[in-house]
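Supplementary Methods, section 5.1.

A reviewer requested that the exact input to the structure prediction be made available. We therefore reproduce it here, unchanged from the version used in the analyses.
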Amino acid sequence: MKVSRFEDLEVWQHARELARAIYRFTATNSFSRDYGLRDQMRRASVSIMANIAEGFSRKGDREFTQFLFVAKSSAAELQSHAYVALDQQYISEPEFKSVYDMAEQESKMLSNFIKYLSRPTTQQTQRLNRPNRLNRPNDPIDPMDSIDPRRRALITGITGQDGSSLWTRPLLWPKVAADPSTPEGVLVDLIRAGRLSWLPADSG
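The structure derived from this sequence is encoded token-by-token as follows.
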């Protein structure tokens, strides 16, 4: 499976869960009557989802990153609004912590994605299959021989017409799996996309 839709991104899926929680909390009797705060929190949660989706549709990583920054700002806005809801006793302490922590997790996931997309192209695994993405068939290949087995990944699910693995071909960069600074969330998205799969730590 290729990541050809924004719905495949874990960061968007988590944003959807966050929006669902916000709509649930703001639907209670006392909260639902505070139209200003209710609508602001709902708009902020929807903004996170929408900016990830819109950024994904853009052809360049720089544009995508800009939309991710906007989504990250909306997550911070949501956290601030949650304090107001708590102070007005619209939500309980446990509910506040749930909302705040979910927004915090979303913010971290967005930061990791921004960090990944900001890397030079030659330090990245094949990018997400976004519309209008330009391929670079002449990019060099980074060998896997020096990769720590604990971080090693092999390209699977993508084979050429001859049945050979595409990990030896341009644009499929195993270096991202070897780099300890690569965010785990990014690897998860790549693995779920069928681009990477883990080898056991004792594999050769």
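The longest helix spans residues 61-87. These observations are discussed further in the main text.
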